[in-house]
Structures are given as C-alpha cells and as structure tokens.
Specification:
The structure holds two protein chains of two kinds.
Chain A lengths: L7 E5 L4 H14 L6 H14 L3 E3 L2 E2 L2 E3 L7 E10 L9 E9 L7 H13 L2 H9 L3 H10 L5
Parallel strand pairs in A: 1-5, 3-6, 4-6
Antiparallel strand pairs in A: 2-3, 5-6
Helix pairs in contact in A: 1-2
Chain B lengths: L1 E6 L8 H12 L4 E6 L2 E3 L4 H6 L7 E7 L3 H12 L2
Antiparallel strand pairs in B: 1-4, 2-3, 2-4
Classes of the chains: A alpha/beta, B alpha+beta.
Chain lengths: 149, 83
C-alpha cells in the first residue's frame, strides 16, 4: 500500500509550502517510509524550485525521488488555503505528496501521478475527497477510486 | 486538421518540467489541440490532462491540431517534441 491512515493528515497547520513539505516529511519518517527527513524534504523542495506542482483545482502534487525514501509512499493532507505558485494562479487546499526511492526501477512515480491526475480531472472525485472528514474516510474515497493501492 | 506522430524525448517522461513547458506552449496556440496515447485523448492545455497519460521516455504520441493557427501551431509542437 502506498498510502494508509498514518499518511493522511487533515488540517495540517502549515502556513507555507515549505512548512507543509517539512511537516509531511516528518510524518512520512514517523510512518517508517523515510530514513532521512531533511534529504526527502530537500529533494521535494528542489523540484518545487524548478517548477510548481500546483496542478489546478486547488491541488498540489509535490514529489521527490531520492534514497532518503525507503519505501514508495503517497501522502494526503488538507491545509488552509495557501499559495503554491500554481499554473492557474489559484491557491491550493489539498496536497498529495509522493516519495519514491531513487533506485526504484522503472517509472513508479509516473504511474502514481498518471492515475492521480486522471482521477483529479473528475469533479466528483474532488468533491468526495474534500468532503471526507477523517483519515479513514479519505482512505475509503481513495480506495473507491483505486488510488494508492 | 494537422496531425503529427512524436515520441517523448525527455528522460524523466512527460511530467513535471516538460509537462509545465508543454502547457505554456499550448497556451500560446488558439486552435484545439488533442494529445493521444493509445485510447486516451487529452487536452494538453491542462497539466492534469498531460500527466494523466503517464507518458514515459520514448512513448509514441499523436498530436492533432485543428483551428485557425494550426499550421504555425504544429511547428511549435514539433519543435517542443524535438526536445
């Protein structure tokens, strides 16, 4: 499983993109998926520096491919609306953060991104996701749409 | 309508930076653009659309452009996929 309830945080108290990524990296380490918090955080921030992962519809998908990650992971968080330098110029309130070990063969994270993108284009999915009020409820929505299995 | 066949030249695949750049190129084009991989047809003016294809390095894609600036547009897209 790429995601479980330990990797879902509702109302993450972050005030900026940097803070959100730091907090989620810590959470990933606590869940045993990341060996080096700073290493993972820096890989994700480096990517963000090259281009924004704000995808529109209020959703950001930061991601990092680094050996600081020990096992592929997908995290979900909701935050108070914040700027993510999205292409569409709008703030975000939902974050999906992906981590994949650098040595991971093939295109695992491309597949995760493709699947997630396909779902996110559907309004019904976005509505159901934002309506979920507990980690268990979020996980149920993701499973209903076959994400993160 | 103008159609070209291309392959993804970017080693990281068509996501991230290349996807962002493709959206920017497409936003300068007025015509309707369709990016096709197998049975999936998407609008490359949307980053989610592009990423939903999961097109890795070397993937074959078809690009269709239809509209007033299609000739100029197809040249822009050719040059984008030249890498």
């Amino acid at each position: 499983m790429l995601i479980n309830e330990d990797l879902i945080v509702l109302n993450l108290p972050a005030k900026s993109k940097e803070e959100a990524i730091q907090m989620l990296a810590e959470k990933a380490a606590a869940a045993g998926r990341v060996a080096d918090i700073a290493g993972y955080r820096d890989a994700v921030l480096h990517r963000e520096g090259e281009y924004s992962t704000g995808m529109g519809f209020g959703v950001a998908i930061p991601h990092g491919k680094t050996n600081a990650v020990t096992e592929p992971l997908l995290m979900y968080a909701t935050v108070e609306s914040m700027d993510w330098q999205s292409l569409d110029g709008n703030p975000i309130d939902v974050i999906f953060m992906i981590g994949v070990p650098a040595d991971n063969a093939g295109d695992v994270h491309l597949k995760i991104l493709a699947n997630l993108s396909r779902r996110l284009m559907k309004e019904e999915f976005r509505t159901n996701l934002r309506a979920a009020q507990s980690p268990a409820a979020v996980l149920k929505v993701l499973q209903d749409y076959e994400i993160g299995l | 309508m103008q159609t070209i066949q291309v392959t993804v030249p970017f080693k990281e695949g068509l996501h991230a930076r290349p996807a962002t750049e493709l959206v920017k190129v497409c936003m300068t084009i007025k015509s309707d653009i369709t990016l096709i991989k197998d049975d999936s047809h998407v609008n490359p003016k949307s980053i989610l659309g592009i990423m939903s294809l999961g097109a890795s390095h070397g993937t074959a894609l078809t690009v269709q452009v239809e509209g007033a600036d299609e000739v100029e547009a197809i040249e822009k897209l050719k040059s984008f996929f030249a890498g």
